[in-house]
Amino acid sequence: MELDSLLTRARLVPVSVVSDADKTLPTLDHGIRRLAGEGTVVGRAVTVQSDGDLLSVMEGLEVAQPGDVLVIDASASPTVAVAGGLFATEAHRKGLSAIVVDGLVRDLETLRPLGFSVYARGTCSRSGPAVAAPRTQLPIRCGGVEVHPGTLVLGDDDGLLVATPEQLDAVLDAAEAIHLREEAVLAKLRDGGSLFASMNFQEHRANVLAGTPSKLGFVV
C-alpha cells in the first residue's frame, strides 16, 4: 500500500487496537508519556542520539520532514531537558507529527496550548549544552525499543508503538476490524446493554476450564 494512504488509515485507529491486532509489535516503555497534544499520531522516525547535548536534537529537527516523528534517545542524561517550547514550536511549524524523548523536556506552558504531541519521561527546567558533534539518523534505543530511521512510530494517550511500513500494512485490516467491533460494543453499552452479551465469555471460560482450544472474542 502507498505509504501516505497507510498513515492516513492508521491515524483513525487507536494504538491499543493496532497492538491487539499484533501483540508482537514493540511498545515503548510506559514511562514515556504524552505531555502535550492529542489524537493518534503516526510518522516516520527521524532518530537522534543525544547524551543531553542539543546539537543532535537541532540537526534532527532541521532534517525532519512534514509528517515525521523526531525520536530522541536522551536516556544517558536524565538531569537536563533536550527539547522545549522553541523546538516543539518549530516542529509544529514544519508539520512534524510529534517529538518523542526518552528523557526530559521543558516549557509545558508553551507546549500544552500548541496542539502538538510531545512525549517524554518528565520535565526539567535546566537544558543541556550545545557543544557535541551531532549524531542523527542512526539506530537508537528509545524506551527500551530499537528504532531505526524510517521506522513508523504510532502514538496516542495510551503510549507509543513502532512498526515497519510492511508490518503496519499487514496488520491494519485486522486493526480496523477490531476497532469497528469495539465501537459497536461500546454503542450497545452506552444504550444500557451488557458487555457479556456481546462476548463469548461463558463459552470461552468453559473451554478454558475443559482444556479445549478457544479464543475470547466479540459476537456482534
Description:
- The chain has 220 residues and is α/β, with parallel strands linked by helices.
- It has 2 domains: 3-163, Ribonuclease E inhibitor RraA/RraA-like (Glucose Oxidase, domain 1, 3-Layer(bba) Sandwich), CATH 3.50.30; 170-210, no CATH class.
- The chain contains 7 helices and 11 strands.
- The protein has a 7-stranded mixed beta sheet with strand order 1-6-4-3-2-10-11.
- Helix 3 links the parallel strand 2 and strand 3.
Which percent band covers the strand fraction? 15-25%
- In the CATH hierarchy, the third-tier topology of the largest domain is known as Glucose Oxidase, domain 1
So, the CATH homologous superfamily of the largest domain? Ribonuclease E inhibitor RraA/RraA-like
Radius of gyration: 20 Å
Shape: elongated
Number of extended strands:
11
Total separate domains: 2
SSE-based structural type: alpha/beta
Indicate the low-confidence ranges by residue numbers.
none
Q: From the coordinates shown, what is the CATH architecture of the largest domain? A: 3-Layer(bba) Sandwich
Amino-to-carboxy terminus distance: 29 Å
Using the coordinates above, name the CATH class of the largest domain.
Alpha Beta
Mean pLDDT, rounded to whole units?
96
